[in-house]
Amino acid sequence: MSDDDERRPGHHHQTARPTQAVVLAGGQGSRLRPYTDDRPKPMVEIPGTGTPIIGHQLAWLAAEGVTDAVVSCGHLAAVLQDWLEAAELPLRVRTVVEKEPLGRGGGLKFAAARLPEPDQPWYATNGDIWTRFSLRDMADFHDERGATATLALARPRIPWGAVETNEFGHVLDFIESPPSPYLINAGVYVFSASFTALLPDRGDHERTTFPRLARERRLAGFPLPQGAYWRAIDTAKDLTEAAKELAAGPPPHGHGPFDTTPVPHG
């Protein structure tokens, strides 16, 4: 974690950095069963840490300057709310519960309505992401581009071994789990205050709001820095892999599943 607010003389973006965030924690996590039989997906513990995914997320957000978070609950909401109430948290947290599924975009809009400063920018993160990188740098990137929304981009590793051939069809090499040629949405966002009004009341913003902003060149993509740790916890295998990576060295010093080049952290 780089605590680098003062890293550049005369740096003028500090006031634009969000201090509020929405965590989307309502997913059913059916692919994580049996872990999610009695708890929502963000309440699944990362093996070896004794802390659920959302605990790691809230600690990261607080370390990046967030003072207020709105957690959007759905599946088994009471389990998550009870844990948040009992835990000693490093920031103020309020919860909202969707009475009926609103879709990802509608859920974001519903939760954003409870942010303490609706006229200020905000972060958002999916509740199943375990990551460490500088949100401050991402906020500056967003601000410098005058974007309405910025999404973090990860380059995951392909889960299969790849075969490299030449133009004659000769096999040249075997590459174990190579990086994907494509960047993916990493599930972490910076939004300007004006973004909230563009969200649908129901439905998926990735099929409506994001394409519209992309056409208008108001959507930015922030590639995660080399060596940053990122993993989406979707399946039991992801939990196993996260535990292995933790044993090798916990984030932010550990290796991510999409990049194995560590970088120094200040």
TrEMBL record:
Domain Nucleotidyl transferase: 21-247
Region annotation Disordered: where it falls in the sequence: 1-21, 246-266
Gene3D superfamilies hit by this protein: Spore Coat Polysaccharide Biosynthesis Protein SpsA, Chain A
Superkingdom, taxonomy of origin: Bacteria
One Pfam family it belongs to: NTP_transferase
PANTHER family: SUGAR-1-PHOSPHATE GUANYL TRANSFERASE (PTHR22572)
Protein name: Nucleotidyltransferase family protein
Biological source species: Streptomyces endocoffeicus
